[in-house]
Each structure stands twice: as C-alpha cells, then as structure tokens.
Amino acid sequence: MGGSRVLLALLLCLSAGSFLVRGEDPYFFYTWNVTYGTISPLGVPQQGILINGEFPGPRINCSSNNNIVINVFNNLDEPLLFTWNGIQQRKNSWQDGLPGTNCPIQPGTNFTYRFQVKDQIGTYFYFPSLGMQRAAGGIGGLRVNSRLLIPVPFDDPEDDYTVLIGDWYKKSHTVLKKKLDSGHSIGRPDGVQINGKSEDKDEPLFTMKPGLTYRYRICNVGIKSSLNFRIQVLVTANQDPKDYYMVASTRFLKQVYTAKRIIRYTNGKGPASPELPEPPSGWIWSLNQFRSFRWNLTASAARPNPQDKVFKYNTMVDDPPPESAEKIVITPNVLNITFRTFVEIIFENHEKSIQSWHLNGYSFFAVAMEPGRWNPDKRKNYNLLDAVSRNTIQVYPGSWTAILLTFDNAGLWNLRSETWERNYLDNNST
C-alpha cells in the first residue's frame, strides 16, 4: 500500500513537471559545400561560386522564430563569409557574417552558423561578404513565412516564387578586386541577370495556372546598379493564357541593361510580346513613389520594433550640431551608442549618382526623402505616422534621406554602402 502511494506521488510530480517544459521553436539544418564552378549568367562561361553545385544557391524556407543551423564547408582557395541580408540576428551579431563581426572561414575548413529569425517575416537573401565575391555568385533567397497563428491580410497564394535580379560583370571577382586595388573603378556592368540568366527563349522561369494568385519575392542582389527594390508582390493570373516576359532593367544609367525571362500560363497559347515597356525615367519618379508607400497599421505581421517603444522625438540631440552641417567632419568608423537610444540619421548625397545604404541588425523607419540640403526645419515634413519599416534606403543625387530607429539590439552592427566597390573601399561604419 505504501509503495502504491509513493508511485502515485511520483506520477503526479512527473505530470506536474510536464506542464513546466517549454518546447523550443523548430530547427532547420543545412549543409553547404561551397566550390567554384562554371556559370553563364550573360551567356558567356565564367568561373562562379556555387553552393552544393547550384547557382543561385539553395533557398532557405522557414517561418518566424525558427532556428537556422547552416554548416558551411569552404572548398574555395580563399577565405569566405556569408551574411544574411535583412535578418536582424537579435543579440547575435557574431553570426552576422561580415568582416569585423565574424572571422573568415579559411579554405579547407568549415563553420556552422546558428541564428534565429526572431520576430521577422518577409523576403531576404544571403551572399558572400568578403572582397568582391558577391560578384561571383554564392547568392540565394531566404524566405521567412508568417507563423500559422498570425493571420495575414490576404489568402494563401498558390505558390511562392523567389526572383533574384541584379547587374552582372563578365570579369571575375578577382579581376574586379585588382582593378579597385589599383585605384580604378570597376566600371559599368555588362548586363543584368534574373535567377542566374539574362534570357532563356525556351524554358519558362515560372508557370502559373489561370485564375490563381502567386507571390513573387523579388530581391536586387547586384553590386552596383540600381534595380530599385527588395519587395514581395501578389500576381493574379487573370490575363490571356500565353507567355509573358518578366523584365528587369537598370535605372539611372544612360545605357539601359535589361534581362527578361518567361512567365508561362499552363496550357497557354502564344509567345510573349517582343515589345518591352519603357522603364520609368529619372529619379524624381522614384522619389514620388517612395512618398506614396505607407505602412498598413491594421495588418498582422512581425513588428519592426518588438520592444514596444515609441520615439521620444524631442529628446534626440543633433550630432554634429546643425551649424556644422556645411563642414566636413572626420568621424571614427566605430560609433558607440547607448542601448535603447532613439536615433535620427540623415544621409546627404552631393554626388550625381544614386547612393544606397544598408544597416545590419535593425529595421528603421524611412521618414523623409527630399531634394536639396537637409536642415532642422525639414523635420516638419517627416512622416511620423505610417512610415515604412526597412533596412536599406536610397539617397538620390542632390538629395537627402532621413531615418529613425531605436538601438535596442545590442551588438556590433554594420552600416554600409550597398554599392559594393564603395563597400570594398571601406565606405562603411559600425
């Protein structure tokens, strides 16, 4: 009888303990073998960087809060790092994959990245971050889906398609690096690629069934030219069933480079129209487009600022003060910022070409973008209501852009130019 009471008490303890256990979010494991191989994005064979023999590399498909484990084997003859463009790596900057936060993976060795896509959903990509390796491939899509318990403001699409667009050079990444080391620019690209090709006259890139809706996840993975965005869009197949072209073209260049791939209706009849639409001309069109974008505050989604803070706008101090704006100030490459400080950053572009800037570890609110010079009176034009959260921003020629963010992610984070030759020449800060 006594033994029965002991057994019953033990079972009750085990039962109670089971309610205290919290299961971890799911883990996804990948093994990448990184090698050189022959690729032909512009129809000319050249050496590229492959992941498991693929270019573009394998797609990572996960959901918010999933844990990602990637074991990377470097079989190149040079050091290697991968960075995860747009993934915030909350309190985990040593997995960010950039020089200064990660030691390079030496040839013939491996390294395992471990990170969580905490409180994020959306479309992202990865690429090799050392030297000019990004110009050789090693790129791929990173899809973070919404958790099932969090609704999205549209029906589930029939399928998700990842589209990686970008400018491309026929010269190898080592030749481009030597040009920069000798004091020369890498010049203009030789063309544009979409998912590793500039054109394919026979095989479709994707197929769609009439009447159904598809989500296209589009990322600009190029190294110099503006192709304008990283965005996801819903496309409904409600046109005549035949072939259509997906077209990607450079912006703001005298010579426009274009790539086109086929989107095919299942059981469609007829080729795509050979006449391609003219792209919007000039950066003023893009600036006005920026002003038209607003954040849907009623939609369910991962929050850009999970700590539920608000901007205490009247407490931020100008550094440097506005009266010194006309002077050139040499600042250190490493900026020490207090945890949970509210920050306003102004980018001014005095050049004739577009600039693009990316901040690792954060999403920020792009609150204003205007031509001319910035001054404190411009703050009255800031969109403090429904600005779009993003991690990369453009600064148009002779213009300025303002962003606001909260430094609530402890670590060492990289603020860099997305024009990769500038980045290589150390046009970045941390």
From TrEMBL:
Q: Which residues form the Plastocyanin-like domain?
A: 33-147, 159-232, 324-421
* InterPro entries for this protein: Cu-oxidase-like_N (IPR011707), Cu-oxidase_2nd (IPR001117), Cu-oxidase_C (IPR011706), Cu-oxidase_fam (IPR045087), Cupredoxin (IPR008972)
Q: Which keywords annotate this record?
A: Glycoprotein, Signal
The Swiss-Prot or TrEMBL record annotates one GO molecular function as: oxidoreductase activity
What residue range is the signal peptide? 1-23
Q: Which PANTHER family match?
A: MULTI-COPPER OXIDASE (PTHR11709), OS01G0816700 PROTEIN (PTHR11709:SF27)
What does the sequence similarity comment in the record state about its family? Belongs to the multicopper oxidase family.
According to UniProt, the name of this protein is L-ascorbate oxidase-like
